[in-house]
Amino acid sequence: MMMKRLSLAICLACCTLGISAQFEQHDDDTKYATDLVKPGTSAPDFKLKTPDGKTIQLSKYAKGKTVVLDFWASWCPDCRKDAPEVVRMYEAYRQYGVEFVGISMDTDVEAWKKAVDKFGIKYPQVSELKKFKETDIAKAYGVNWIPSMVVIGEDGKVKLSTVLTYKVDKYLKEWTTGEYKPSRKGEEVFIDGDHGRLKAIIQSPKLQDGEKCPMVVFCHGFSGSKDGPMFELIADTLQAHGIASIRFDFNGHGDSEGAFQDMTVPNEIEDAKKVVAYVRDLRYVSDLAIVGHSQGGVVASMTAGQLSEQLGQPAFKAVALMAPAAVLRDDAIRGNTMGKMYDPFDPGEYVELFGGLKLGGNYIRTAFSLPIYETAAKYQGPALIIHGTADRVVPYTYGERFHEIWPKSELVIQDYFDHGFSQNIYRSTDIVADFLIRQLK
Question: What crossing angle do the helices spanning 327-334 and 2-22 adopt, rounded to 10°?
Fold first, then answer.
């Protein structure tokens, strides 16, 4: 028996090491953007022709404007992959006066035109119609790799140069809307949970007497809390679109009662059910949706499954999972949670983690046999799973598995994004908010 246990532990450890190595995070700018024009320098002027033969001069076109230069080509696979995202950014930021100019490295004007039509590109396009390395514009801007992007400010100075579209999106979001300051406005309520009272914040839109609105329940992650920009950004967007939300601290977290050591996934599911029951009874609430990040994603998915089984139909109008940590079961079996090793067959009373956190032995014992996907599969309504390829806490394959068990789900894989979506939290939260608005309004 001991040999079987040891073999299982070794096998899982080896598999996990392979997964971790596969999903290591890299910043491609350190390799491909080293020669790009540097922020603070004056943007080199140029005169280039459009496919129709018209001339665009940067100094005249960009005077007093913020302009994004997108270096690309129809023959470039990465450019074709990024094109829809660049078009989306153009549509999102043009209302703020941001201009885009595509600088093509094509030599075939017909192939260039065909690609512009295919991707629905509406912003101006220019090119020298020369081979990439022979173009004056590539030399002037230090472009050794495409796609590359350069943001030029109203003063004509370079503000950002990168080969990563998400960095441009984040820069433009912060430039157009200012530094994010959470509203944190809402009604504070306390709800009886599985291990004491849970503190929650409800954000609601202004409603007329008798009017109802949908409600979204947010489930935070392991050692997290109801506060923080991820859920606050989504909640603020939902509120602006007539949708209420509730953010709460699980037992042993934040401002809620209970000890962290007593927290388990099953009792967090019970907490979530108590919150769902509370908001379902509010007179102004119509439909419900649930969102979870990391371990909260596991809780949200299993809560949806259990309640759907009880009702005999989908318990929520929508479920959204952000980097769902279904790896927690494998972590428990392997005896390694957050990098802390322990005997999974005899974890003791608790295991001390980072910052003095004590992970209870019951957490490990219950996680060991947690039927995550089997339970989640009992929910068969609309769902969204969003996960980053650079998530080193939970490899994105765990998110893909939810997509496989939910036929009505949408899967968004964000290249280079980590577990907390820190590369561009605005884009990730926008994706979730947009999905919820589509499903609830």
Answer: 130
Residue 79 token pair: 């450019």
DSSP-assigned letters across all residues of 314-353: -SSSEEEEES--THHHHHHHHTEETTEE--TT---SEEE-
How many whole angstroms separate alpha carbon 251 and alpha carbon 263? 6
Beta strands in 123-182 (DSSP E): 125-127, 148-152, 158-162
Task: Record the tokens describing residue 404, joined without a space.
Answer: 């496989």
Entry pTM:
0.83
3 state DSSP class of 218? strand
Half-sphere exposure of 326 (CA within 13 A, CB side): 23
Instruction: Say how many Å lie between the first and final Cα of the chain, rounded.
Output: 55
Per DSSP, what are the bridge partners of residue 412? 386
What is the full per-residue pLDDT of the chain (441 aa) written as tens digits? 333 333 333 333 333 333 333 334 458 999 999 999 999 999 999 999 999 999 999 999 999 999 999 999 999 999 999 999 999 999 999 999 999 999 999 999 999 999 999 999 999 999 999 999 999 999 999 999 999 999 999 999 999 999 999 999 999 999 998 766 665 579 999 999 999 999 999 999 999 999 999 999 999 999 999 998 999 999 999 999 999 999 999 999 999 999 999 999 999 999 999 999 999 999 999 999 999 999 999 999 999 999 999 999 999 999 999 999 999 999 999 999 988 999 999 999 999 998 889 999 999 999 999 999 999 999 999 999 999 999 999 999 999 999 999 999 999 999 999 999 999 999 999 999 999 999 998
- The answer to whether residues 243 and 216 touch, using CB atoms and an 8 Å cutoff, is yes
Locate the domains of the chain by residue range. 29-177, 187-440
Q: d(Cα 438, Cα 183) in Å, to the nearest integer?
A: 23
* Cα–Cα distance, 121 to 113 (Å, whole number): 10
**What is the chain's length?**
441
- How far is Cα 384 from Cα 430, in angstroms, rounded to an integer? 12
Torsional class of 360: left (φ above 0), alpha (ψ -120 to 50), beta (otherwise): beta
- Tokens 């997509």: give the residue: 403
- If one looks up domain 187-440 in CATH, what number appears? 3.40.50.1820
The CATH classification of domain 29-177, taken from the options 3.90.650.10, 1.10.730.10, 3.30.930.10, 3.40.30.10: 3.40.30.10
